[in-house]
Every structure is written in structure tokens, then in C-alpha cells.
Amino acid sequence: MVFLSIVNYVRARGPDEIWRKRRIFKLAAHYIGRRRNCYSVAVRNVHRALVYATKARKLKKEDMKELWDTRITSACEQHNITRFSLKEGLERANIALDRKSLSDLACWEPRTFECLAAVAKQKLELDGFVDGVDKKHPTGVNLNLKDVMLDAWLKERKN
């Protein structure tokens, strides 16, 4: 478009408006009715949806942390150790595993988690650590490091 005077140039909104509206309409493509076709309605609904999406990303992280903690706690109860004791024992044994890794082990590799719990318990006994933080008394099987070692498992498999 060629403008011979500055007045006509100022009044023309140009291609910027087309692309701005197109971006909003693209985000509103799955809506129904005027929410999809009318720009003034679509822009409100798209902005609201983007706000919800931003909040949901933070909530998803919190939900995952809660799920991982629940899995770790329930696996610890099976092996008669509290979650705090497990974390403290692994930390003292220089085993650095985060929540997600521990929960995956608890779900998909229970034998490995059992060995980690036994190592943590053994390390706490060697250090003379008394768990005074968690007042819960876990109900589960008492672990002994010798019971979950590879040699004992191999002997069991041969018999």
C-alpha cells in the first residue's frame, strides 16, 4: 500500500492488527460460538485460559511432589522405617536420590527400595541416630542388611 500523505498512513492499522488478531483466533479455535468468531469475546476468553494454564503449571508441580511423598511414605511403612529416617540415613550414607527417583524405585523396583531402606537403617544404627522427629511408629517388616544382600538372594534362588 502506498500512502501519498502522512494522514492516510496514520489511519491505516496495517498488517500488525491482522497478525495480532490471527494469533488470538488461533488460540480460540477450539471454542464454540462467539467465543471463537468474535474478537472482543475471544480475546477475553483466551486471556482467562492463559491465566488458568499458568496457575495449573504450578499446581501440577505441587501435585507431583505430594504423589511422590505419598509413595515414599507408604513404601517406608512396609519396611518399618519412617520417611525422615530413610532420608537421613541415605544422606549420611552419601546416597543422593531425590523424591522422584525414590518414588519410582518404590513403585517399580521394590527390592531395590528395600535394599536402600536397609542401608539407611544400618547407617543410622552405626551413627547412633534416634528418630525424634517422626512420632509415628511404622508397622512393617523389620529389615536387616544381611537379609537383603545379594548373596542371600542368590542362595535363595539356588534352593
Automatic annotation (TrEMBL):
Pfam family, one: Ribosomal_L20
Claim: Transmembrane helix is one of the keywords in the record: no
GO CC annotation: ribonucleoprotein complex; ribosome
Any one GO molecular function term: structural constituent of ribosome
CDD domains attached to this UniProt entry: Ribosomal_L20 (cd07026)
SUPFAM superfamilies per the UniProt record, alphabetical: Ribosomal protein L20
GO biological process terms on file: translation
Alphabetical UniProt keywords: Ribonucleoprotein, Ribosomal protein
Family membership noted in the UniProt record: Belongs to the bacterial ribosomal protein bL20 family.
Name listed for the protein in its UniProt record: Large ribosomal subunit protein bL20m
Species this chain originates from: Manduca sexta (Tobacco hawkmoth)
